[in-house]
């Protein structure tokens, strides 16, 4: 709700006889908000729900009319399955289940930028990544499995990125010690490890790769930015060169997204913080942090988003619309409008350390699965066209419509 003072309330300021106080009372809390105009958040429509009950769902990836969810831990069936969903209609339909031999639990599932390859991470010992051919999307064919002494402790996450025309997998390895392993998978049948280094305290949890830069989530060592071919430091995937590092508020740096704004800006990195929580979906914690990398040598945290009693997990961006969609465990899915200058806001929308509170600036564009009925624990989100897919640890996969948010974004530009 936007707050404005009445004449009587303003009179109280005048009687205070302090001009600065009077000005503060009259100030609109949204006046200095970087050109952002708030809108009322919508309830994002849920189109359909594909259910699984004997396994915890984990990460989700989508390409065309097919979605893939991994599974985690044991419930009571082990988390060693990739679930393949036909999402051509509103309700996801389970088409096949692929059991990954030798895995206790799975983490990330990734689809290559050309759509030909699907890669999953396996835990615990022996940790590995398994590569599948997607020529027939609902009938995965295993091409290879990569493991080495450096992945033995378990591969918690894997991200794919292309550098100088070659495709690489970036593996975050469980302690001890936590380490980053980079594997050239240009020929997925013959993967080659090109780099490994211990990093993170106590974890290196995830990475983001774009334009020859590598962003690493190093938990309590913050976020580090590396040149691997685009930072002008001579770095490569085989020899990353450190550019800078920032310790974000509260630590626990879990995941990252470098936002490329439609107007050409590449100013902000969104950093997920993962705090304590419960698998049952009853509670979670951890904020979204906004880091300004206009000066890549001196990153600055300028804003944050927080939800009482809940915390973010993974997120995805609809960059053309300027909207970040966050999986928020027991608080469902949250959509944030991240257009404009995120560092500008009035004093009454700032934390004591100067960061803008995106909730107080009313950047919430939409919500889904937030009412606790059904109870959810949303792990991951993925976008394909006008649809958003959310993996629910407790029940499977939801398909939601984001068409109206995209339409609104187009009308605002």
Descriptive account of the structure:
It is a single chain. A 5-stranded mixed β-sheet has the order 1-27-25-24-23, with no helix packed on it. The chain has a 5-stranded mixed β-sheet with strand order 19-20-21-22-26, with no helix packed on it. The chain is mostly beta strands. The protein is 7% helix and 43% strand. Residues 1-26 have low confidence and may be disordered. The protein folds into 2 domains: 1-30, no CATH class; 31-412, Methylamine Dehydrogenase, Chain H (7 Propeller), CATH 2.130.10. The protein contains 3 helices and 30 strands.
Quick synopsis:
The chain has two domains: 30 residues, no CATH class; 382 residues, YVTN repeat-like/Quinoprotein amine dehydrogenase (Methylamine Dehydrogenase, Chain H, 7 Propeller).
The main sheet comes to:
5 strands, mixed
Low-confidence stretches: 1-26
What is the CATH-assigned architecture of the largest domain? 7 Propeller
Task: Output the strand order for the largest sheet.
Answer: 1-27-25-24-23
Straight-line N-to-C gap? 24 Å
**Secondary-structure-derived class:** mainly beta
C-alpha geometry: globular
- The averaged pLDDT comes out at 91
Instruction: Predict the CATH topology of the largest domain.
Output: Methylamine Dehydrogenase, Chain H
How many H/I helices? 3
Number of strands: 30
Keywords:
five-stranded mixed β-sheet; Methylamine Dehydrogenase, Chain H; mainly beta; disordered N terminus; 2 domains; single chain; 413 residues
């Amino acid at each position: 709700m936007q707050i404005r003072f009445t004449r009587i309330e303003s009179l109280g300021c005048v009687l205070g006889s302090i001009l600065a106080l009077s000005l503060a009372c009259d100030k609109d809390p949204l006046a200095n908000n970087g050109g952002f105009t708030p809108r009322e958040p919508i309830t994002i429509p849920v189109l359909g729900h594909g259910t699984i009950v004997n396994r915890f769902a984990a990460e989700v990836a989508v390409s065309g009319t097919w979605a893939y969810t991994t599974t985690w831990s044991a419930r009571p069936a082990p988390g060693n399955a990739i679930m393949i969903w036909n999402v051509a209609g509103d309700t996801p339909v389970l088409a096949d289940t692929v059991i990954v031999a030798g895995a206790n639990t799975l983490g990330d599932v990734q689809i290559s930028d050309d759509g030909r390859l699907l890669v999953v991470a396996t835990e615990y010992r022996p940790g590995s990544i398994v590569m599948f051919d997607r020529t027939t999307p609902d009938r995965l064919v295993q091409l290879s499995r990569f493991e080495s002494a450096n992945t033995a402790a378990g591969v918690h996450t894997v991200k794919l990125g292309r550098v100088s025309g070659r495709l690489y997998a970036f593996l975050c390895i469980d302690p001890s010690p936590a380490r980053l392993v980079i594997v050239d998978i240009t020929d997925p049948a013959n993967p080659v490890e090109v780099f490994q280094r211990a990093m993170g305290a106590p974890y290196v949890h995830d990475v983001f790769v774009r334009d020859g830069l590598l962003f690493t989530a190093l938990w309590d060592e913050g976020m580090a930015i590396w040149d691997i071919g685009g930072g002008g430091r001579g770095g490569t995937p085989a020899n990353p060169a450190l550019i800078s590092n920032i310790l974000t508020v509260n630590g626990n740096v879990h995941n990252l997204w470098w936002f490329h704004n439609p107007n050409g800006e590449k100013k902000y990195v969104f950093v997920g913080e993962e705090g304590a929580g419960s698998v049952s979906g009853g509670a979670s914690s951890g904020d979204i942090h906004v880091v300004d990398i206009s000066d890549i040598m001196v990153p600055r945290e300028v804003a944050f988003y927080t939800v009482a009693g809940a915390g973010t997990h993974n997120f995805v961006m609809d960059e053309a619309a300027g909207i970040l969609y966050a999986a928020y465990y027991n608080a469902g899915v949250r959509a944030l409008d991240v257009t404009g200058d995120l560092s500008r806001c009035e004093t009454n929308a700032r934390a004591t350390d100067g960061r803008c509170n995106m909730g107080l600036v009313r950047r919430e564009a939409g919500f889904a699965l937030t009412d606790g009925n059904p109870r959810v624990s949303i792990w991951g989100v993925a976008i394909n066209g006008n649809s958003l897919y959310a993996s629910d640890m407790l029940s499977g996969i939801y398909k939601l419509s984001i068409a109206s948010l995209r339409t609104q974004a187009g009308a605002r530009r």
